[in-house]
Design a protein that fits this description.
The chain is an alpha+beta fold and 238 residues long. It folds into two domains: 5-82, Phosphorylase Kinase, domain 1, CATH 3.30.200; 85-220, 2-Layer Sandwich (D-amino Acid Aminotransferase, Chain A, domain 1). It has six helices and 15 strands. It has helices at residues 46-63, 100-105, 134-139, 145-168, 212-215, 221-231, and strands at 5-9, 13-17, 23-28, 31-34, 39-42, 70-73, 78-82, 85-86, 89-96, 112-122, 131-132, 171-178, 180-183, 186-189, 198-202. The strands form four sheets. A five-stranded antiparallel sheet has the order 1-2-3-7-6. A five-stranded antiparallel sheet has the order 11-10-9-12-15. Helix 1 packs parallel to helix 6. The longest helix is centred in the middle third of the chain and has 24 residues, at 145-168. The chain is globular, with a radius of gyration of 17 Å. The protein starts with a strand and ends in a 7-residue tail after the last helix.
């Protein structure tokens, strides 16, 4: 399957049209951004690492009944995915307090929640991804009540599956974001899952193994991503 024409370019990935209207080539780039694109750097090999990590996670989710847009990995940086009609909201699950919720509510970082906390954010970098509710989503026509219920169900299902996988790897899945779209009328998980879009803490030391290392200028970003892959049993290609 060949990448023919650029369809859109995000902060870290690009999507290309193919000969098949229903399929896209998703290219994972080495671009690494923080604070809605205010800081952007190139981290060599990050795209390839995330492509492999994403393939592993998407396959695990599919095996456990979560419908995804993922089809197969084409090359070091490219994946074949279904072309979705994307819903412009991010579904965020929080198992522990970190990031924006700590600043918003003044709670202690690392506090464990009694149950997974589900939040919605409008995908809009200019507005800094404002928090919205299900009522906003339905009122503005971004998704129907039924679609929103399905997104909620799949997000919590994904959390249950991935918490167990990362727990076995000695990592706490602190929080993550998911994006969904429609494929021939079905709600399907889109975008990607990598340390770019989640928080992973070492269960013993609490050390960050995700993009917070870039946001907080801690260094060792690629080393952390490689470590996550290794703990999951992924043999990274050179």
């Amino acid at each position: 399957m060949n990448a023919l024409k650029l369809l859109y370019q995000g902060k870290a990935k690009s999507a290309y049209l193919t000969e098949d209207h229903d399929l896209l080539v998703l290219k994972f780039r080495d671009d690494t951004s923080a604070f809605d694109g205010e800081i952007i750097e190139q981290l060599s090999e990050k795209g390839a690492i995330n492509n492999q990590l994403n393939a592993f996670i998407m396959n695990k989710l599919s095996e456990n009944g979560v419908p995804t847009h993922y089809v197969e990995r084409l090359s070091a940086t490219d994946a074949l995915v279904k072309r979705l009609d994307m819903i412009p909201v991010e579904c965020v699950v929080r198992n522990r307090a970190a990031g924006s919720i700590v600043r918003r509510l003044g709670i202690e970082e690392g506090m464990a929640f009694n149950q997974p906390l589900f939040e919605l954010f409008l995908k809009n970098d200019t507005l800094h991804d404002p928090m919205v509710t299900e009522h906003h989503v339905e009122a503005f026509g971004w998704a129907t009540h039924h679609e929103m219920s399905r997104m909620y169900e799949l997000t919590l299902q994904t959390n249950t599956i991935l918490k167990a996988i990362f727990d076995q790897a000695g990592l706490q899945l602190v929080d993550f974001k998911l994006e969904f779209g429609r494929f021939h009328g079905e709600i399907v998980l889109g975008d990607e899952f990598s340390p770019d879009g989640c928080r992973l803490w070492d269960k013993v030391t609490g050390e960050s193994k995700d993009k917070d290392r870039f946001r907080q200028n801690l260094g060792g970003v690629l080393e952390a991503y490689r470590e996550v892959a290794g703990r999951l049993g992924i043999v990274l290609e050179n």
